[in-house]
Amino acid sequence: MKDIKLSEYQNTSIYFYLFDVVIKNKNLNKDEFLISIGISPTSYRRARKSEQAIGHEIIKILADYFDYRLLTNEEISNMEILFTNIYNDMYYKCFDNYDSYMNILDHEIATNSILFPILYNFKSFMMLNKILKPEEEKKAFDIYKENKCYENFFNFQLKNIFEIYDIFFLDDFQEYYSINDFDDGLKFYIISSIYVKKNDVIKFFYYADIAKNYFLKDNNFMRVLYLNNTYMNVYSKINDFKSCYNLAKS
Questions:
Q1: What is d(CA 61, CA 77) in angstroms, rounded to the nearest whole number?
Q2: Are 101 and 82 in contact (CB under 8 A)?
Q3: Rounded to 10 degrees, what is the CA torsion of 218, 220, 225, 227?
Q4: What is the pTM of this model?
Q5: Exposed e or buried b per residue across 123-134, where buried means at least 16 C-beta atoms within 10 angstroms of its C-beta
């Protein structure tokens, strides 16, 4: 089980990384724009670097200008609970609350929550953990592309979770990540599925075995079941029907 922590988002300095991107995406000259709405560029840079009292005022001005809804500490705590539940349910392949989670995420996005990049990424995370139709996979990919620019706004834990998008969507993900740094079964599960598509059975078995060990350690038997189905499909492709039969009996 994983607990999602958002304590950084109860402070202000992390939001400067969000507004760095928002201002850039609007094709605004940052210093000129800040001065035009009454913010000192020097104060902006100072509050971005470390938590300062003026940071609250700056973030409030920017949120009002771009029509983003700031969250109270209580609301952020509620988001921690929501994201924790989403992650663990998707990890354990439990979809009982899937529609309810989606509705909450959509509501938060529709009401202009300032955490919108995180909300969108959890939508994509949920989609990737269901059996996707091609059009749904494309929608998840579009969310990934749009949110990639906000990755500096994610705290360390969220970055670690959202690395799965790079693994899933980037053909050359190993140029950006070291396999030795991965520490959860979900990432190895995705890597193994990639090598199924590439018909590289040796690498599939290697990464699938690692993923399976993680899932067994976490008592994640639903993931093991899904992975075993993939094992049997691969065994069938290479005409290893004995291994397929033995796994089916186990």
A1: 23
A2: yes
A3: -60
A4: 0.89
A5: bbbbbbbeeeee
Q: Quick one: tokens of 178?
A: 């070291």
Q: Which H or E run contains 145?
A: helix 134-147
CA neighbor of 79 nearest in space, from 156, 12, 153, 7: 7
Report residue 138 as tokens: 């494309």
Distance in angstroms (rounded) separating the CA atoms of residues 9 and 105 = 17
Comparing 47-51, 148-152, 246-250, the range with the smallest average pLDDT is 246-250
Q: What is the pLDDT confidence band of residue 177, given thresholds at 50, 70 and 90?
A: low
DSSP string over 15-68: HHHHHHHHHHHTT--HHHHHHHTT--HHHHHHHHHS--HHHHHHHHHHHHHHTP
Distance CA 56, CA 63 (A): 10
Residue 175 pLDDT > 80, yes or no?
A: no
Checking if the pLDDT of 134 tops 80, the result is: no
